[in-house]
Structures are given as C-alpha cells and as structure tokens.
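Bumping with the actual sequence this time:
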Amino acid sequence: MSDWTDFEDVKQQVAVYGITLVEGDTSVLAEPITIESKVIHNRLLIQPVEGTDADAYGNPTELTERRYLRYAKGGAGVIWMEAVALDSSLRSNERQLVLSEVTYDSFARLIEEMKQTAFAANGYAPTVVIQLSHPGRSCLIPKPAYDNEMWETVRSAKNQPVVSDDEIERLAPLYGDIARLAARAGFDGVEIKACHHFFINELLAATGRPGRYGGAYENRVRHLKETVAAVRALTNDVFITTRLNHYDGIPYPDGFGMKSDGSWLPDGSEPLRLIEELNEEYGVELINCSSSGPEFELFNNRNAVDQLFGEPMTPLRSGVCMHLFAKEIKQNLPGIKVVATQFSHLKQYAASVGAYLVESGGADFIGFGRQALAYPDFASDILKKGMMDKDKVCLCCGGCHRMMGSEKGAGCTVRDPFYRS
C-alpha cells in the first residue's frame, strides 16, 4: 500500500508517465448541476460497489440498509446503487439484489429512508440511481454473448450456449418493466450497465458474433439502444444513463474501444460515436465512464495493490488513464455530463485533483467506489472542510473485495469496526 508523504510525491510518481497532476479549488464540487431536469446538489458521487448482502429473494437486508444509510448521511449528491439483477435467474451471486414485484416494497422503503436520512443530516436528498445489470458470462449459470477464447481463460462460460438473437430481443422489454418499478420505488435515474465485461459490454465487442447483434458496429450497439428505447418508452420519471467501458483492456477483435492493430492501446472512436448517438437518439445526458476490469491488466479499474494477475500497472497510472478517458469524452462531446472515477488511489488528495478535473472541464462528477465503504462521510468533509481526512481514507488494501460473499458481505476491514472485527 502506497502512503504518499505529500502531494509533490504523488506528482512525481505520475510524472513518470508524462502527466502533470494539478490541485483545484474544492468549492467547485459544491456546485449543483441538472440532468434531464433533475437538480443534483453537488458533484460528489458514490459509485456502485456490490455488497453481496441481499436475502434469498434479492431484498435489501439490514446490512444493505446500514451501508446505504451511511452513504445517505454522508452528503454525496449522487448515490449510485450497486448492480441489481433483472430477475433471480440473472444473478451473478446468490446474494445479489433483485428488483421485482416481490422485493419492490423493501426497495421503496430503503429509498425513502435514504432520502429522509440525507435531508435530516444535510438539508437535501441525494439523487439515487439504480444500476440494472445482466452479468452475462458471470451469471450463476453463465450466459455468454459470444464465443470469446480470451475470456474463457479467466471467466469461463462453462460450456453454456451463446445467448440467441431471439433471447436478446426479449431482454429490452424486461429492462423497461424493471425501470418502471424503479421509478415507482423512488429512484431518480436508471443505469443500463455496459461495462466490466458484463453482457452488454461483451456484445459491444462481439465482432465475431453472427446475426443481428454481432459483427458490424450497428449490430453490436443494437441491444443497448433497444434497451434504452424500451426504458424511455415505459417511464418518463427517471433519467437514463449508462456506465460504459471506454476501454476494454482486451486487444481487438475481442475488446471494445481498442485499436484495430491488436495492441493494448485504446481507440475512443466507437465509444464516442455510441455516446453521441445515445444522446442524439434517446436524450441520454449522463455517462459514467469506466474501463475493463483487473483480469488482463493489473490495477485496471481496481485499486487493490495485491492483485497478481496481468500486466504490471500501478494504481496511479490506472487512475490517471481513467481520468484521461473522461476528459476525452468532454473534449469531444462537451454537452455530455461525465462521471470520472478511480480517485481512491489518490487518498486525501483525491478531492483537490478531482476538483481540478471538474474545474478544467474534464468531468462533471468525481466518483468514489470503495472509498465510500471506508469513508462514507467523505463528501461532507469535502463540502464543509474543503479536504479529505487522511486518517479516514481508503487504503486500497483489497479487504472489502475479499469480504464479498462472506456472511457479512463487503465492507471496509480497516476503517469500519463492524467489518474489522
């Protein structure tokens, strides 16, 4: 675990990659912003991190409620709820949340409690987004989008058949039905998950898949567009967004956002084209920018310093790459609102570095994932004190990830006494 002595130390380590980090005025993070007529009170956002603590039906449990009420009290303008399955057959683990008519009441109660708790603590309620997820080959019974030999080495489909075109076509209305439930339950936004090699993300890279949903760009993006259209048709009460891989970290032809020369280098042309089309055709204003996962590149989109698989990459290099992806979207599509992520590795300097990114037009929100498990009131400290407390920040040790699937679910094993014990 790296322990920066001061900001100059951080700058020197990033300078190795030819990049200069700059600190900004954190007051910019207190500015409100509007997404599809919904006013968001500040630029601080809690990213979706699965707690793996739902009950057998997919209801939030006391552990789920504890986590989200701590988030709510902490003052972030946006709380982006973790991956929620479309139904029990599409869970990635047996303790994943599922929104359905059966679990609706428990979700509605939780959202109401979150907003009441936040209003009592901060004088405003957070904007709450639900992440609707199809795990694809990560389902309990894998449902691969196409035959991908590279992925078989790290996330095998276990000889399960590729999902057919007809099956894919039936998914968009299901997303629409669950989005309508989410709106009724009190969510403000609905995300269609298209990152981290889950089903839609895998389809975006399915150059070798035949039929209506593979091969040419227009076919590969078809399912995501059908899904957004289905949600838009069934409810006007929520804004629509997607968390999109800007870079898959898998060489072409198996990766989205990759150079076609077979290298590991990014090519933002297709992601940028897709974002522009989602905005022009369906009114999508907000993009949560992400990338790959840790399977092929060390530290790619995960801050734990003990990951052993993949090409060597430092947490700082990975994080700075993510900030550059967000900046690329803003430079090319300035009307799009963008969430930048991977700030936890910067520890107490994350707020000021994120502030400069927002201040300079490189992003609209700064998102914190595992940081929020360790430090749920980070937003309150930034907004009230202008800085983060070095004695409360995430240490990027990976303890929370190792807790996933345990009896308690995911939590910070360093800062939270409940999980530390």
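The tokens above came from a reply further down the thread. Residues 302-311 have pLDDT under 50 and may be disordered.
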